[in-house]
Amino acid sequence: MATQTHPPTQTATAPGVQRSGILVRVVVAFGLVAVLSALIGVVLSGASYEPAPGGLPDAGPIVGWLLPVVGALTFVCAMATVGWLLLAGFLDPAAGKTTVSKRGRTALLRASAAAGIWCIISLVAAVFKLASILGIDLGTAVGPSTFITYAWDIIDVRTLLICALLAAIISVGAAISVSLNGTTVWFGLAVAAVAIPAMAGHAAGLGDHGLALVNGVAHAVAATVWVGGLIALGATVWPKAETVGIAARRFGLLAMACVIVLVASGIANAYVRLGSPADLVTSGYGRLVLAKSALLIALVAIAAWIRKRLLPQLTGEQPRRTFAKVAGLELALMGIASGLGVALSVTAPTRVAVEFPTQAEALLGFVFPAAPSASSLILGWDFDALFLVLGIVACVYYSIGVARLRARGDHWPISRTICWFIGWGIVIWATNAGLATYAEVSVGIHMIQHMTLTMMAPIFLVLAGPVTLALRALKPSPTGGRGPRELLMTGLHSTLARFFTNPITILVIYVLGLYGLYLTNVFGSLMSSHIGHIVMTTHFLVAGILLAYVAIGIDPKPAPLPFWGRMMLVLAAIILHTFFAVVMMSSTTLIGATWYSQVRPPWLTDPVRDSMLGGQIAWGVGEIPTLIMMIIIAVQWARSDERESKRRDRFTNDHGDHELDDYNAYLNKLNELNQQAKK
């Protein structure tokens, strides 16, 4: 009897699994390119490991050579995490209005895995960084006594530990999340985790530390989002070519913004770190900058070709393969650029640290200004890149929205546009004029800046109706899913929006910006770092916008207050503000002493009196804007009653006054009953 033989069993591979394997291999290949580029860049720049001379502390060759490798791997994991979160929450055309699609759920699981690896590598990077800074071997650095004693006190190590914690939270959250709102939260945390290590950049002490910090963060975030978005876009091409056009348009806008940020921040970073233009050619750091610039130009050209030539005809198998090849080339160039960026981070810049005549001026980062005058306060200049760029971008996008409305024949009041420009003009002036310089050495002048940002600028910003403009200018999602307009609508009706527009929450935030800041040590601590200064300034602006938005804003609100409630909210804010001013004026101690006692200029002879002046300014300057808000509420209330009266008149003319007729019928019935009673 012949034995029947069977061919070897072949296991079919599902297309989704195959695509998943392809994407994983692409990310791994990207990581290898980044690592090799980082090592080559370190060698070319002259920053490769060399034993410390003269018996100085040395971490050894393992730390010296692997530190850039670990940095590159951290960056790759961050890009992969951000990319898959982008796909799940923003770029996926199949996503619903509240939940992710099947593809989005797969992307979330991949993001969870990438974030888990990101967490582990960040912890490893923290150990390597600690060993490098202290000049000890890895065994000593990882020891509990050394790590616990020193890790949190060294800012470079501390930021990596915070990054690892955020990555762990993202890993767990993405693994169990199916909602778009949750995905948005994890994406925000991922961007924050990318930004935090960039805040500890080595260029912060080279002068222009504020510009260096802002540009370092912007550069890291823009690069991560661009590369991650390209990975996400590739994930939409292979499963369904007919939907890639929608994802490509969404990513195109995002990529355009990233390119602009990368170019601007790259130029600013080169300015901050290079001593002279000649250093671009003569120094290792400069040559790396030139190499990155050339790669950026090539990437922009490839991206432009893909968007204009390839994506419009991406409907067949051959165009998809062409896209894959071009996107692979783009990812390879991005990998090289990422590796060179890591090499730059461990290469010493050529700009010489600024020497200041006193320790106080070294803390400030600039020479003491002359005694303040009206011209120096109003017309002086203290460049703040963050709020200047933020204000310009806000005005540009507002103008685009107005132009879009007018192009289709819709009306938008010119007064609102004027209010928007005035509001941001005030913000830019308060953060970039001479006022900002003097605010760092004088409590009284700082209080003028605070009142301007919290009380004046928000009045104009909320009267401009930016949310209403955005809702009218943005187009609905073509797939019925969640586009920019849908995101805005979801945010307006979210629990978070209702919480932050609750009057109690607003007053708590408002009080924290007064009592919780100035009457504690928090004020001095925030003033001592540029990051703290940004946080404080942002708080001033946000707290004022929330109060003005609920009280006098013309945009739609999650739970609008009646006009009498708005009056009570502003009245409560005035009372709290006045009592705070009295406390400051009565104080016999210096407010923010941990900072202002160290940076006192020669012309400031009585710092306690300067604190009392701050209280007087808080009382005098702060009350005027609140009075203006009360007047605006009264006018809006009167106009509302007038509109309601006109509406009732129109309804009565068209349908009759049913309430009056019912009341007259009621009186007639009472009269009849009275007549019957008399009989």
Oligomeric state of the chains in view: single chain
Question: Counting H and I runs of at least 4 residues, what is the number of helices?
Answer: 29
The proportion of residues in beta strands is under 5%
Overall geometry comes to globular
Order of helices and strands: HHHHHHHHHHHHHHHHHHHHHHHHHHHHH
Which structural category fits the helices and strands?
Answer: mainly alpha
**Which regions have little confidence, pLDDT < 50, spanning 5+ residues?**
1-18
Q: End-to-end span in angstroms?
A: 123 Å
- Largest sheet composition: none
Mean pLDDT: 80
User: What's the Cα radius of gyration?
Assistant: 30 Å
Number of domains: 2
Helix content: over 70%
Strand segment tally = 0
Question: Can you characterise this structure?
Answer:
The chain has 2 domains: 19-345, no CATH class; 359-655, no CATH class. It is 75% helix and 0% strand. Helix 3 packs antiparallel against helix 6 (155-176). It is built from 29 helices and no strands. With 679 residues, it is mostly helical. It has helices at 15-45, 61-91, 102-134, 138-141, 144-150, 155-176, 180-198, 209-237, 244-273, 279-282, 284-310, 317-345, 359-364, 374-379, 385-407, 414-432, 434-439, 443-463, 466-473, 484-492, 495-500, 503-512, 515-518, 522-527, 530-552, 563-586, 593-596, 607-655, 658-678. The N and C termini lie far apart (123 Å). The protein is globular.
